[in-house]
Amino acid sequence: MLTMRHKYISTQSNEILSYFNSKDIPCLALQALPESKESAVRELLSDMTKRGLLMRLKEGVYFIIPYEENAETFMPDRHLIAQYLVKGPKYYISYYSALQIHNLITQPSLKVKSKLLFQNK
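^ thats the sequence. predicted structure below, dont judge the formating
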């Protein structure tokens, strides 16, 4: 069984998370904090990832892990993060994923399967 590490939030981390949560934005990008020095922001985001506050999706793009979730087992909705993984505003969700979003398939989602895998360990 995986144990949950205690999360602690620094003042800087709290300000960043509060800002994005107040805007209902689940992901943040390195470029979202232009007033700060890039190396300092990278270091802060890396530290927040190690503390289980963020999940790195790709270089410079992070998903905010809800505080009550275990960072080791948390899996964001892949449909929700699609817009943050592609470049540019135009993208679409096709066949299997579109069917799943509209509840037109009977197969369990990957999120359900992955939670079951973690529970069985």
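The chain has one domain: 11-120.
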